[in-house]
Amino acid sequence: MEKDVHSYSREELIQEVFDMKIKKKKSFNTCLEYIKSKGYKQTASYAIMNEVAKRILELYKENNKNVLEKVVIEMEQDLEDANNREDYKLALDIRKEINKLLGLYTENINHSGNIDTKVTIIKLNGPNGDSDKSH
Q1: What is the signed CA dihedral for 22, 23, 29, 31, rounded to 10 degrees?
Q2: Is residue 26 part of a domain?
Q3: 4 found inside a domain
Q4: Does pTM top 0.70 for this prediction?
Q5: Is the pLDDT of residue 15 over 80?
Q6: Residue 55: burial class (beta carbons within 10 Å; 0-12, 13-18, 19+)
Q7: What DSSP state is assigned to residue 118?
Q8: Residue 84, class by beta-carbon neighbours within 10 Å (0-12 exposed, 13-18 middle, 19+ buried)?
Q9: CB-based contacts of 135: which residues, under 8 Å, 6+ apart?
Q10: For the chain, how many structural domains are there in total?
């Protein structure tokens, strides 16, 4: 028996939709329609989806942090091995990759080289109040 909007707590619905997104890989639209089928209006449905998105983002941040830590530890071991073998080029390449992963490099801004300019010609009057160019 499915619960209707009156017997469903908002928190239960958020958790259920979160599980739909993560475990069942359901699309945004499928989840939105599911929320609406429980009696929620459009605005409330989008608000619930927003809460689900925040939880998913937090989950990904935590998972990515754990994966990043593991990768850096493995790469540091590779760096030590390269140094022990005196393969300094490989060691430098590994160090560069570790630094990138840790965000130690600044981001480059690419520019197309096209610059739009607008030129405004201002006509100045001479000392006598005229705009004669023969001065």
Answers
A1: -100
A2: yes
A3: no
A4: no
A5: yes
A6: middle
A7: -
A8: exposed
A9: 126
A10: 1
